């Protein structure tokens, strides 16, 4: 473990916040590594100095705390009981709470409707025919084949000319 330093665990080690397995691992490393041992000693000295120079916390005044708590509770209950000024704000807050979700749901519904084929309207039969024809437009890429098909139709008509009735002469 000498090649892997334990810098990130040194402060927790000084505070005594490591579990026994991690504490034993850090102890073993610090015993073999001069750099980590020096860092741990510096962290310990710094934390001792901070603890010595830190001001004492202010005393807790439980009476003042209870009075503030009562005042806040009274403001909250009087505001929502339907009083003249606070009730309107509480009512608006109650109504406005689901408003973003409703707006988001409306936008999703709008996007779904416009994303459907035809924009949510009944399908247009001509649009369906155009779609089918558009899928067969790859034949136009082979224009020479299409032109030859036209020639075949002409040959078919020429072959059927004998069977056509002769026009009547009046």
Count all strands and give the number: 0
Mean pLDDT: 77
How much strand content do the residues show?
A: under 5%
Counting helices, strands and paired strands, the structural category is mainly alpha
Please report the number of helical segments: 8
- The outline comes out as elongated
User: Uncertain regions: pLDDT < 50 for 5+ in a row?
Assistant: none
Radius of gyration: 44 Å
* Residues in helix, %: 55-70%
Largest sheet: none
Gap between N and C termini: 120 Å
Task: List SSEs in N-to-C order.
Answer: HHHHHHHH
Describe this structure in words.
69% of the residues lie in helices and 0% in strands. It is mainly alpha-helical. Helix 1 packs across helix 3 (34-53) and helix 2 (20-32) packs across helix 3 (34-53). 5% of the residues are buried.
Write the SSE topology.
Elements: H1 7-15, H2 20-32, H3 34-53, H4 62-80, H5 86-96, H6 99-115, H7 125-135, H8 143-159
Helix pairs in contact: 1-3, 2-3
List descriptors:
170 residues; mainly alpha
In short:
This protein is mostly helical and 170 residues long.
């Amino acid at each position: 473990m000498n090649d892997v330093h334990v810098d990130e665990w040194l402060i927790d080690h000084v505070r005594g916040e490591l579990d026994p397995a991690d504490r034993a691992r850090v102890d073993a490393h610090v015993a073999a590594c001069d750099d980590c041992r020096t860092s741990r000693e510096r962290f310990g000295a710094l934390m001792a100095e901070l603890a010595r120079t830190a001001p004492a916390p202010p005393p807790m005044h439980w009476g003042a705390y209870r009075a503030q708590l009562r005042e806040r509770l009274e403001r909250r209950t009087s505001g929502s009981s339907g009083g003249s000024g606070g009730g309107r704000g509480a009512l608006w807050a109650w109504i406005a709470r689901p408003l973003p979700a409703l707006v988001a749901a409306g936008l999703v519904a709008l996007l779904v409707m416009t994303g459907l084929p035809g924009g949510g309207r009944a399908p247009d039969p001509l649009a369906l025919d155009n779609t089918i024809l558009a899928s067969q437009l790859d034949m136009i890429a082979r224009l020479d084949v299409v032109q030859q098909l036209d020639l075949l139709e002409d040959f078919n008509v020429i072959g059927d000319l004998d069977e056509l009735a002769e026009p009547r002469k009046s």
